[in-house]
Amino acid sequence: MLDWQDSVLDKDLNTPPGSPVEGNRYIVAASATGAWTGQEGKIAEYNGSVWKFTAPNEGFACWIEDENKIYAFNGSAWVAIDPTGAASAAVASHESSHNHANLPTTNEKSALASTGTPSGANPYATKDYADQKLERVILTKLKVIRNSDDGEEDYDTSWYPNGFGSSQITVGNDNTGSCDAGFRFLRAFIPNNAKITNAVLRVRAAVNSTKRPTLKVKGILQAGPNTFAGDGSDRPSTRAKTTAAVDWDIAEDWVLNTWYQTPNIASVINELIQQAEFAGKSLALTIEDDGSPANQYENIWDFNSAAANAAELILTLEPNVP
Predict the structure, then answer these.
(1) Are residues 132 and 208 in the same domain?
(2) 98 in Cβ contact with 71 (< 8 Å)
(3) In the predicted model, what is the mean pLDDT of residues 87-113?
(4) How far apart are CA 207 and CA 115, in angstroms?
(5) Beta pairing class for 3-4 and 60-64
(6) Domain boundary among 73, 96, 119
(7) Does residue 267 carry a pLDDT above 80?
(8) Are residues 49 and 182 in the same domain?
(9) Among 117-126, 224-233, 263-272, 297-306, which is the least confidently predicted range?
(10) Distance, CA of 109 to CA of 190 (rounded, Å)
(11) With 90 as the cut, is the pLDDT of residue 22 above it?
(12) Cβ–Cβ contacts within 10 Å for residue 52, how many?
């Protein structure tokens, strides 16, 4: 498997941006200057005061947000894992197609404007658009890409599309009652002969924490769930959920800006994609409080804090051959 890293905003800058936000990540381009001098090809992450650099190992892979493409490091350079299969031989056996074939609705095109309309052949499926078939195992990542697609619901009554405070989403029991989260992922195209063998929801810690909430992950049982309305009229508690649910009982301290992931939620994702009307436009998940003791909760970054902080869904797809 590829060694997946957190996404980066851009790989073509050789000068640090003027007003970075904590958690911003870049791949440093050639002829770097300023605080990036001598760091070409490394991953630069701003920690709120200085830039920290990570030298890539062969097999490092990450999502480049301004291009909406996956790049991998082949030992000497970052190369695109492209839909033609022409990526470096060092990563060719682990290609992952980001070129989903489904198209967004008119209302969603503005949110996806930077990506353009999907094009090109999908090497993992037949060319028949209406009946694409998966032909090999692939690993793909979906990410919350707009502000209305995540948020916090308090006590099954109030919806906060930017998180409750400081662009943070609380999950668990905040000493007043249950706090839940909702996440929606666009372009969830999955060929109709595929099965999900592994799936994890990844979130980024917004504070240092020693809490121990007990949580449960479910899917919103709609074939093409709408985004969360700002007025909360379609907050997670108002929607049908999957029968499948996966416990996520936090058993470790959380560290600020560290990524944490759920156990395997493949059962939840498979129930969503097996809906007769599922069209692959989107899917949505919830993290619900599951009887946490009072004052046991975690805070995670909302999309509004920075696109690089937004929740991620990592899926392993395999052909579903009897």
Answers:
(1) yes
(2) no
(3) 38
(4) 32
(5) parallel
(6) 96
(7) yes
(8) no
(9) 117-126
(10) 20
(11) no
(12) 11
pLDDT in tens, 135-187: 778 788 899 988 899 999 999 999 999 888 889 999 999 999 999 999 999 87
Over the chain, what is the mean pLDDT?
83
pTM of the prediction? 0.62
Pairwise CA distance, residues 211 & 201, whole Å: 19
Span 53-59, mean pLDDT?
Answer: 90
pLDDT given at position 139:
81
Q: Residue 237: helix, strand or coil by DSSP? A: helix
Residue 261 DSSP one-character state:
E
**Based on the domain organization, do 69 and 214 belong to the same domain?**
no
Of 215, 216, 212, give the one whose Cα is nearest residue 296. Answer: 212
* 140: Cα separation from own chain's centroid: 10
- Report d(CA 134, CA 100) in Å as an integer: 12
Residue ending a domain, among 71, 96, 121, is 96
DSSP code of residue 8: B
Q: Which two tokens stand for residue 231?
A: 């007025």
- Rg (Cα) of the chain, in Å, rounded? 20
pLDDT on residue 2: 66
The pair of three-digit structure tokens given for residue 111, joined into one six-digit string: 């949110």
For the chain, where are the alpha helices, taking DSSP H only? 266-273
Structure tokens at 212: 């121990």
Which pLDDT score, from 0 to 100, does residue 97 have? Answer: 35
The CATH number that applies at residue 312 is 2.60.120
Question: CB neighbours of 224 closer than 8 A, spacing ≥ 6?
Answer: 277, 278, 279, 281, 282
Rounded-to-integer distance, Cα 41 and Cα 217, Å? 37
Q: What is the pLDDT of residue 317?
A: 87
* Cβ pair 121, 148 in contact under 8 A: no
Contacts of residue 168, Cβ cutoff 8 Å, sequence gap at least 6: 206, 207, 299, 300, 301, 302, 305
- Please name which of 271, 15, 310 lies closest in space to residue 168, comparing C-alpha atoms: 310
CA 63 centroid distance within chain: 10
